[in-house]
C-alpha cells in the first residue's frame, strides 16, 4: 500500500492549482483531484502533475465532496489541501516518523495571508489535515474530520492566500448560503455560528456579525479550539459596530483566560483607543490602559502556537500602534523608538 496521498476537491482553480501540486512533489505517493465542474484548465493542470482526476456533481456539501475524494485514494494516509494552499516547509524526518507510527489526526499550521495597512500579514490556525485512510468528514461547510483518534501538531507548514480581498468577495455569497442551510439543521452549533460571524465580519458586515458571535460565545466550550480567535474577533466586531461597552464587558470577562495572548491584548488596546476617540473626556484614564495593552503585547511576543494568532501582534504591529500613540501624545522620542521596532 502507498503511504501518503494528496487529496483535493477543486473547481476553476487553474490560477493556483499548479503551485499546490508542485509543493507536494516528492512528498506524496499519489494525488487524487476531485473536480466539481471546472470550466477552465484545472483538469489539464492536475493531470500534468500526475494526478488522478475524477468528476463529482456538486451538491452544496463540502463533506460529501471531501469524502468522495478520500474514497478514491489508496494510501494509508491522506493529506488534505485546497488549491489556494501550498506546503511551505516539511520536516521530512518528522513526517516519516508519523506515517510509520500509530494512527493520529495530524494538525498542520495553516498560515493565512491577509492585507493590513498595505502589507501582507499572517494568521496561523492549527487545522486537521493529515488523516488516516478511514477518517471521513462531516459538515455541509467548514467541514471537520470525525475521529476519536488523538490529535497531534505536526511540522508541515501550509500557506494559504484565500483570505485576500478578491478571494473573499468570490466566496462570500456561497458561504453565506451554505452556512444558513447548515444552521437550519444545527441552530445551536457554536462552530457554525462562529463561522457565520466571521463570514459577515470579513465582508465588513459588523452589525450582522455581532449577534452570531454572541451566540457562539454563549454556546462554545471555553477550551474549544476556535475560542481564542472567536473572543478576539468578537471584541473587534463589537468595536466596529459601535458597541464599545459590550466589547469592554466581554474583554473584561475574558482577560483571565488570555494572559498569554498578544492577540487579546492587541484587540483590547485597539478597543480602548477607539473608545477614547468617542469619549475624549476619559482620555486621561483610558490612554494609559491603551499604552499598557500594547506594551503587554510586546512583552508576550508573537505566539504562533496559539490557534488563530496573527503574526506581528506581539511585535511590529503592536510597536506601530505604540508609535502612533506616542506621536499623538507629543512624545517624539518614544514615537521614534517604536517606529524603529515596527520596521524590524
Helix content: 40-55%
What name does the CATH topology of the largest domain carry? Serine Threonine Protein Phosphatase 5, Tetratricopeptide repeat
Please write the string of helix (H) and strand (E) elements. Answer: EHEHEHEEHEEEEEEHHHHHHHEHH
Number of helices: 13
Shape: globular
Q: For the record, what is the CATH homologous superfamily label of the largest domain?
A: Tetratricopeptide repeat domain
> For the terminal residues, how far apart are their CA atoms?
49 Å
Q: Unreliable segments (pLDDT under 50, ≥5 consecutive)?
A: none
Largest sheet: 10 strands, mixed
Query: Which CATH top level class of the largest domain fits?
Result: Mainly Alpha
Whole-number radius of gyration?
Answer: 22 Å
Provide structural commentary:
Helices cover 48% and strands 21% of the residues. With 344 residues, it is α/β, with parallel strands linked by helices. The chain has two domains: 2-160, Spore Coat Polysaccharide Biosynthesis Protein SpsA, Chain A, CATH 3.90.550; 165-342, Tetratricopeptide repeat domain (Serine Threonine Protein Phosphatase 5, Tetratricopeptide repeat, Alpha Horseshoe). Strands 1, 2, 3, 4, 5, 6, 7, 10, 11 and 12 form a ten-stranded mixed β-sheet that branches. α10 runs antiparallel to α11 and α12 (316-328) runs antiparallel to α13 (332-342). The radius of gyration is 22 Å and the shape is globular.
Amino acid at each position: 500500500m502507498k503511504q501518503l496521498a494528496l487529496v483535493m476537491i477543486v473547481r476553476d482553480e487553474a490560477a493556483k492549482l499548479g503551485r499546490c501540486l508542485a509543493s507536494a512533489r516528492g512528498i506524496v505517493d499519489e494525488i487524487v483531484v476531485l473536480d466539481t465542474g471546472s470550466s477552465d484548465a484545472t483538469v489539464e493542470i492536475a493531470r500534468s502533475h500526475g494526478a488522478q482526476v475524477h468528476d463529482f456533481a456538486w451538491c452544496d456539501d463540502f463533506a460529501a465532496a471531501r469524502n468522495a475524494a478520500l474514497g478514491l485514494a489508496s494510501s494509508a494516509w491522506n493529506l488534505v489541501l485546497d488549491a489556494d494552499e501550498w506546503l511551505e516547509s516539511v520536516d521530512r524526518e518528522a513526517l516519516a516518523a508519523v506515517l510509520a507510527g500509530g494512527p493520529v489526526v495530524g494538525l498542520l499550521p495553516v498560515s493565512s495571508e491577509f492585507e493590513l495597512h498595505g502589507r501582507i500579514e499572517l494568521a496561523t490556525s492549527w487545522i486537521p489535515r493529515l488523516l488516516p485512510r478511514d477518517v471521513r468528514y462531516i459538515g455541509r461547510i467548514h467541514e471537520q474530520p470525525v475521529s476519536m483518534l488523538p490529535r497531534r501538531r505536526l511540522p508541515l507548514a501550509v500557506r494559504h492566500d484565500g483570505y485576500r480581498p478578491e478571494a473573499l468577495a468570490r466566496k462570500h455569497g456561497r458561504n453565506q448560503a451554505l452556512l444558513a442551510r447548515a444552521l437550519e439543521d444545527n441552530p445551536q452549533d457554536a462552530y457554525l455560528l462562529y463561522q457565520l460571524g466571521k463570514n459577515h465580519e470579513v465582508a465588513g458586515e459588523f452589525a450582522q456579525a455581532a449577534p452570531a458571535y454572541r451566540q457562539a460565545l454563549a454556546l462554545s466550550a471555553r477550551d474549544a479550539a476556535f475560542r481564542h480567535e472567536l473572543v478576539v474577533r468578537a471584541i473587534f466586531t463589537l468595536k466596529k459596530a459601535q458597541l464599545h461597552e459590550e466589547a469592554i464587558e466581554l474583554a473584561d470577562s475574558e482577560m483571565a483566560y488570555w494572559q498569554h495572548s498578544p492577540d487579546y491584548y492587541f484587540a483590547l488596546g485597539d478597543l480602548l483607543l477607539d473608545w477614547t476617540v468617542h469619549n475624549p473626556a476619559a482620555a486621561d484614564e483610558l490612554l494609559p490602559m491603551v499604552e499598557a495593552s500594547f506594551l503587554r503585547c510586546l512583552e508576550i511576543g508573537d505566539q504562533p502556537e496559539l490557534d488563530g494568532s496573527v503574526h506581528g501582534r506581539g511585535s511590529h504591529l503592536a510597536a506601530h500602534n505604540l508609535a502612533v500613540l506616542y506621536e499623538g501624545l507629543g512624545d517624539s522620542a518614544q514615537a521614534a523608538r517604536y517606529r524603529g521596532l515596527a520596521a524590524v
